[in-house]
Write a structure and sequence with these properties.
The structure is a homodimer. By secondary structure, chain A is an alpha/beta fold. Helices cover 25% and strands 25% of the residues of chain A.
Chain lengths: 339, 339
């Protein structure tokens, strides 16, 4: 086992777009394992859009990431040393170890370390369809949108880790699933591999009228439920096509993470169509997690829930992979493989 | 009894602001009363902001008002002729008779004609605090905002027919009630006569920073629930001060009725603070109406729910009074008295 732990720190806050300068790779000695503590070697880091929000100081649901500290984030790996009877060397675990090769898990952080079963579900899937993104999709669809069979569900960032699960679950619940994604390659993946009924390439629809026309064609009976990961002009277009009593689960506003606010241009449609627009954060609903993981794990194990991963190799590749994620360069769940 | 019925027609649609030219007063013979039909003489017409929406052709929850037809609207009056056993001459009734002196109520419209008890509640109150505006306030507060005692409720257009009831009901439910209104006279009325805890004069807060400062002072523990009647910059300011898991009942977007869309400038707060923003229309919840009217009627009869009326005299005054309502020139419920 190495005696060095490499990690990536946040060293400055973005002025507008995040850049490589905001991060620094450093080496530190591996800490000693004290009583009750567990040392985890990370196999995978999860990269997620919400991390961009934490890089800024703006008020949000979570405290901003501290400057000079290791970037926070979800991790999957194995226990390599343990002085805690609940964990044994060799256990596979997911946790919030951050952007580093090893994490010493101690004290208040221990409840966040979860043993997982990798006999039928690959380790990395616990950061994707069976992890936070999948659970987010499950929660927003099942608890906020509550679509009925025959309804039309639209999801933006449809090829991403969350959106891909939203649409497949919607199909399994008897709904028409319509994705929105950027580029032909992503849309082909969404329709032909994930099985959505339709996918709109927003890059091929540069103005509001073109986007609206494609939405009308893809959702001929209107839109009953929207799982919104992006915000901005796509969301505006979807709102305009929503049926009376439609529901919107507001999960992400990626378009606004770089600082400039992105308005909802015509919110009177919320009144006119009596919509419910609800923001949510999945980790505030812990009681749903076991139900979500049970369904998602079974679907992945049986091959009925499909997913792809974009895997960057090595810790040093994490910042560039993260910036690429914010630009939509990944296809499927963005991971960093460390082993 | 007169043999002539005066009425006001919609003769053109507004290009931007509604104007007097959009309306025309005309005289028509009083119709004969056929079997099953009821003739009502109107004592009061109700003027309401939603009517502006119906003057336009834009898609909305109700069909646009037809050109050349009598303006639609709520009315209170008495039965002057009846060939229907459910109604007798002299009954006091509320209905949807429109902008005219008499209405012949027949066929499918009959269920909309409701006998009311004016022993303890004045007839005009059935168009205000015990009518559609009061029921709207009751429904939005009780069924969408569901505030708990000690929470802070903000309502815009606080001196209006809906807003004035929202704040008083919030106080009766143990909440802190904060109004927003235009001008010192309205704010004084809201605080000193209606008993709100505070009222912000938005005309004295011309920019976002000034508005935010006043909101912070009036709602020192943040805002848990917002009953939104206006939209625009006031709504933006309120959203920015909402506590986690806050609720917004979206009842009106008066700022946008003249055609130009009024955006929500920073909707990412809906995500950050996990808000629920819900549009609603009260007449879609008929099962709530008897509960609402029972509570509101008892509160008016006992003097615990206060209200004022702005009364224009005579049918010919209706268009100007309506345009004044859209400009916020009224204080309390805007009515037209016909008798």
């Amino acid at each position: 086992m190495s005696t060095v732990n490499h990690r990536i720190l946040l060293v400055s806050r973005p002025q507008a777009e995040a850049t490589l300068d905001n991060f620094r790779l450093e080496a530190a000695p591996l800490p000693d394992v004290g009583p009750g503590e567990v040392l985890v070697r990370h196999h995978y880091l999860s990269l997620d859009p919400y991390m961009r929000g934490r890089m800024s100081e703006a008020k949000s649901y979570a405290a901003p990431q501290a400057l000079g500290a290791t970037m926070l984030g979800g991790t999957a790996g194995e226990v390599v040393a343990s002085r805690n009877p609940a964990f044994a060397v060799g256990d596979t675990v997911v946790g919030n170890g951050g952007w580093q090769e090893y994490a010493l898990v101690a004290g208040a952080a221990l409840p966040g370390l979860q043993k997982i079963d990798t006999r039928n579900v690959p380790l990395s899937a616990y950061l994707g369809p069976v992890g936070m993104p999948g659970i987010t999709a499950w929660f927003g669809l099942s608890k906020i949108l509550e679509p009925k069979p025959g309804e039309t569900v639209v999801v933006s960032a449809a090829s991403g880790a969350v959106g891909s699960v939203v649409g497949q679950l919607a199909r399994l619940r008897g709904c028409r699933a319509v994705g929105v994604a950027g580029g032909k390659e992503k849309c082909d993946y969404v329709v032909h591999e994930l099985g959505f009924d339709a996918c709109i390439d927003y890059k091929a629809a540069p103005d509001a009228a073109a986007l609206d026309e494609r939405l009308a064609a893809a959702a001929p009976k209107g839109i009953d439920a929207c799982f919104e990961n992006v915000g901005g002009r796509i969301f505006d277009a979807v709102l305009g096509r929503m049926n009376a009593f439609g529901r919107v689960a507001l999960c992400g506003m990626i378009a606004g993470y770089d600082g400039e606010p992105v308005p909802i241009r015509n919110p009177s449609v919320i009144l006119r169509s009596r919509l419910k627009v609800q923001g949510f954060i999945v980790f505030e609903s812990p009681s749903s997690v076991p139900w979500a993981m049970a369904e998602l794990g079974a679907l992945v194990a049986s091959g009925r829930l499909r997913y792809r991963e974009s895997i960057a190799q090595g810790l040093a590749a994490a910042p560039a992979a993260f910036l690429g994620l914010l630009k939509g360069r990944n296809l499927g769940k963005q991971l960093v493989k460390l082993t």
